[in-house]
Design brief:
The chain is 32% helix and 24% strand. The protein is α+β, with helices and mostly antiparallel strands. It has a single domain, classed as Aminopeptidase (3-Layer(aba) Sandwich), CATH 3.40.630. Strands 1-8-2-7-6-5-4-3 form an 8-stranded mixed sheet. Helix 3 packs across helix 4. The protein starts with 13 loop residues before the first strand and ends in a 5-residue tail after the last strand. The mean pLDDT is 92.
Length: 253
């Protein structure tokens, strides 16, 4: 059964609908013939998922704030970190711990090691906008996190996916005109789940996105069975963008 990356909570699935919509960074994409090819070879689609897009120009972050979320924003045990890219390895470790704790009980999740996380994230320090990610601590360590990055696909197309003499020009223009961002993951440590922290983090992130001039926000993927996350998409006013499935086939000895 596949496909997914180091753990199923990262890039996952085969795109089955929504081919006309341009993907964001970290959203999986494949040509339209791939699902049929897999079916022709005995694979069946399972575990349906969707990606989403939020129109930030029309969205009011205030709709995310109920009494519990407001309590989380001013909770004396929580410290909202200003992300400093000069200490990127330490920040990454906080993100990693929040991911592993919050997703511990999710199906197909495999905890990510420090080495694996840094291998994937080490170059993000060059392109991250630290204002739009969220990292929250309590006295035990990371309590919650959201990694949100600018959508890099427009830059990669301009560069032809390789660094040449014009790369500095394209990078500066990208930094000045970027308008799409993608939420790579959001995670709340188990000790803080179901207390409103997730909504409080989304409020902080969407406020920062609008303040920084972003117009669209993409979400990587959410399983059809994940009711709480789908309700968050409703609060965000997000529209479905793509449909994805895992494909499986029994092994024959």
């Amino acid at each position: 059964m596949g496909n997914f990356n180091l753990t199923a909570m990262q890039q996952v699935g085969v795109l089955t609908e929504g081919f006309a919509h341009a993907p964001y960074s970290d959203q999986h994409y494949n040509p339209p013939h791939i699902p049929g090819l897999l079916r022709d070879h005995g694979f069946e689609p399972v575990f349906p998922m969707g990606t989403f897009e939020c129109d930030l120009e029309r969205f009011d972050p205030g709709v995310l704030l109920g009494p519990r979320q407001q309590e989380m924003l001013r909770h004396p045990q929580l410290r909202w970190e200003d992300i400093d890219l000069r200490h990127f390895a330490r920040v990454c470790e906080g993100f990693r711990q929040a991911l592993n704790d919050g997703f511990d009980a999710n199906p197909m999740f495999v905890p990510v090691t420090s080495e694996e996380f840094l291998f994937q994230a080490r170059d993000l320090s060059h392109v991250m906008d630290p204002a739009i990610s969220v990292l929250v601590h309590d006295h035990q360590g990371p309590a919650g996190a959201i990694i949100c990055i600018p959508d890099l696909n427009r830059l990669l197309r301009a560069l032809g996916s390789h660094v040449g003499l014009t790369a500095p020009f394209h990078f500066i223009r990208f930094r000045m005109t970027r308008e799409r961002a993608v939420m790579v993951f959001q995670s709340v440590a188990r000790r803080w789940q179901n207390r409103g922290l997730n909504g409080a983090m989304l409020h902080r992130m969407t406020e920062a996105l609008k303040r920084r001039g972003y117009r669209r926000l993409g979400m990587t993927w959410i399983a059809d069975s994940n009711g709480p996350s789908l309700r968050q998409m409703e609060k965000l006013g997000a529209r479905p963008l793509h449909r994805l499935h895992l494909f499986r086939k029994p092994l024959v000895a």
